[in-house]
Every structure is written in C-alpha cells, then in structure tokens.
Design brief:
single chain; two-stranded antiparallel ribbon; 4 helices; 7 strands; 19% helix
C-alpha cells in the first residue's frame, strides 16, 4: 500500500516513512455494496444518491467509499503543510488553503461517512478526497460533476482510536466545536459562504 498526499499546489507527494499526520481514517477496504453514478450534476446530488445506500444498510455505521470513473468537473482544495503538529483545523483552513479546478478528468474519489451521533468525534456526513488517474493531482473535494463512475461502499461497524500523548496535544481545547468554522472555511473559497 502506498500512502500519498496532496501538496499545497495540488500535486501528489509520497511522504517518507518518518512523516506523521495529526489525523487520519484508515481501513482495509472490503466492498459491501456498489452504486452506479452517471450524469450527476453536483456533490449534493451525489451525496443524496449515496445516502440512499447508507439509509438502506444502516445510517448509524461508518462507511468508506471508493468512486472510480470519469468526472466532468472537479473542484478540490489543499492546505499548506503546517509547521505546528497540533494547529486547530479551523485556524489552518481559514488562511492556508488553495483551490484547483479539473475538467474532463478520470480518477478516484475516496470518502468517509460519519454518522450524525458521532459529530463530536468527526464532522458528520460525507468527506471526500480525489486523486487523478495518473496519480499526479488531487485534493479535498469541494464540488464535483460525475460523468460516469462506480461507487463501492465498505460498511464499518467499529473502529479503533489512537490519541497523541504529547504535551501540546494535551493542552489543546478539543471541546470547542469547530464544525461551523470549518464549514465556513470550506465554502467561503468555493463562493458559497
């Protein structure tokens, strides 16, 4: 398995084995359900179709999804590398993100669905990342128009969580809700906020 990340300019980099991240969601992907997506106008329509699968299988579980195919348009963002390992996400997103637009591109979206009752642990709903077919460009998905793609779902009914023990992490105020400021930072650059 190769781990990759979108750099601030949208290019894909392969981090060294010593590189760490402050937050990640990882799974051994197993397909539980599939959904064909074609002529999907935007991310809201895509999520509505995917929510149908989630509601059928069980809305109180986590889901990973892999969507492979052809996309008419893709708007993604990426952030600059943070020098401080425990910088609050809303602070980082407010100033340190850039956007990129891709048209008529093939590639893979991967996503996580977090159930509503877990919103204090993670942002509830869907969260997507994209990488193009030749693995050179990508980022966090802000908007998408799908020409023709196949979505594969992995239902996860459990998870393991590991926390930092470093002093800086222990001193952070993690009880404050940053959902709205993150949502604002995501949509302001997209012309929606």
């Amino acid at each position: 398995m190769t781990i990759s990340a979108a750099d601030a300019d949208g290019s894909i980099v392969i981090p060294s084995d010593e590189e760490t991240v402050s937050f990640s969601n990882v799974t051994f992907f197993e397909v539980d359900e599939t959904l064909h997506l074609s002529d999907v106008a935007d991310i809201a329509v895509q999520q509505e179709a995917m929510n149908g699968v989630v509601n059928t299988l069980g809305a109180n579980c986590f889901y990973m999804v892999r969507i492979e195919g052809a996309f008419d348009a893709m708007k993604v963002r990426s952030e600059y590398k943070q020098e401080k390992s425990c910088r609050a996400p809303d602070v980082a997103l407010e100033a340190d993100q850039t956007e990129f637009d891709y048209e008529n591109v093939r590639g893979t979206m991967v996503g996580l669905y977090c159930p509503q009752y877990m919103s204090s642990l993670n942002t509830a709903g869907w969260h997507f990342h994209f990488i193009n077919e030749d693995r050179t460009r990508g980022g966090h998905v802000l908007q998408v128009s799908i020409k023709d793609a196949e979505a594969s779902f992995d239902l996860m009914n459990g998870f393991e969580m590991t926390l930092f023990r470093e002093d800086e992490f222990q001193k952070m105020d993690l009880a404050r809700n940053v959902d709205e400021t993150i949502r604002h930072a995501k949509t302001a650059m997209n012309g929606q906020g």
